[in-house]
């Protein structure tokens, strides 16, 4: 009798302390919010991670694309969700470093409304042009922009995206005037660059590497501290004569504020495990991504440092989205 009571007590304790992945809640899928349309680098990475994680967690992870309002639609959705471990979000520079400087009022507070779960990756952006564009180097590109002030347009996946702010940094550093043409996502933006409707853009290597290697767009330089192994002939912006212009997109995972510590620890562990898997490592290498990983605290510190860095650029460029 005592043995039965002891076993029953242990079972009750386990049930009370179980994480969602060990309870009936595991029958519910995790919703992973991506604040961009399908097909871009953020979406590709989220789907790669979800595929790697769902087997180990024994739970479905469904990607939910919620683009719009410079990522604010997706971010607000997560900020208002229950902290039950069933809502995650891909968060990038826009959500965590740009928007607090671009908008006078946000529908979320990046410090108070989220649990920082962990970093995923960072990847450099490249200045690319249509293959028929006359400028063959960054110096020629700058000379063309200065000789044609206001006549040169550039595409981006949307207002407030890393690609948008990368070109604004470039403009500040080079004293050029290039007009912004925002799109709803990276895919339609780069399609128009390939088609010649818009001559140039900053494109993340996660989405752009195959296009550069196939000649569908031409890379003039990358915003990384050193050349990328898969593009050895493409100089860095510093080598091309534009110093202090390191431009990269970072990705991490957020959950609503108040996520219990046990769930946070489990999710962070699963993210780091997936990042270390050969499948994810190869996919990231193929797309020019650098793994971040680490603890929630490290991801939080990096995001806040990037917010300070980009806040200065946004102020210098006088960019506002409201």
UniProtKB/TrEMBL annotation:
Keyword Repressor applies: no
Keyword list, A-Z: Signal
Recorded superkingdom: Bacteria
PROSITE patterns: TAT
Signal peptide: 1-24
Membrane-spanning intervals of the chain: none
Keyword Ribosomal protein assigned: no
Family: Belongs to the UPF0065 (bug) family.
Name assigned to this protein: Bug family tripartite tricarboxylate transporter substrate binding protein
Organism ancestry: Bacteria, Pseudomonadati, Pseudomonadota, Betaproteobacteria, Burkholderiales
């Amino acid at each position: 009798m005592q043995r039965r009571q002891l076993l029953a007590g242990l079972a009750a304790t386990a049930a009370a302390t179980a994480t969602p992945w060990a309870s009936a809640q595991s029958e519910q899928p995790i919703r992973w919010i991506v604040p961009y349309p399908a097909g871009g680098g953020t979406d590709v990475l989220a789907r790669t991670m979800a595929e790697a994680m769902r087997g180990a967690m024994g739970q479905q992870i469904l990607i939910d694309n919620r683009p719009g309002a410079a990522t604010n639609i997706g971010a607000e959705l997560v900020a208002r969700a229950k902290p039950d471990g069933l809502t995650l979000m891909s968060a990038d520079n826009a959500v965590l470093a740009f928007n607090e400087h671009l908008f006078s009022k946000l529908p979320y507070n990046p410090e108070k409304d989220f649990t920082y779960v962990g970093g995923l990756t960072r990847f450099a952006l490249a200045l690319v042009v249509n293959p028929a564009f006359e400028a063959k180097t960054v110096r020629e590109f700058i000379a063309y922009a200065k000789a044609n002030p206001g006549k040169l347009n550039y595409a981006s996946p949307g207002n407030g995206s890393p690609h948008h702010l990368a070109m604004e940094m470039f403009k500040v550093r080079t004293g050029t005037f290039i007009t912004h043409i925002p799109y709803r996502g990276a895919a339609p933006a780069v399609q128009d660059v390939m088609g010649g409707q818009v001559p140039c853009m900053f494109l993340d290597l996660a989405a752009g590497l195959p296009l550069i290697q196939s000649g569908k767009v031409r890379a003039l330089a990358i915003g990384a501290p050193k050349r990328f192994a898969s593009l050895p002939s493409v100089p860095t912006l510093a080598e091309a004569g534009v110093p202090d212009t390191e431009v990269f997109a970072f990705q991490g995972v957020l959950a609503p504020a108040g996520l219990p510590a046990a769930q946070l620890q489990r999710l962070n562990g699963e993210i780091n495990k997936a990042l270390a898997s050969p499948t994810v490592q190869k996919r990231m290498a193929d797309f020019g991504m650098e793994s971040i990983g680490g603890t929630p605290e490290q991801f939080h510190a990096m995001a806040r440092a990037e917010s300070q860095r980009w806040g200065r650029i946004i102020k210098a460029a006088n960019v506002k989205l409201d």
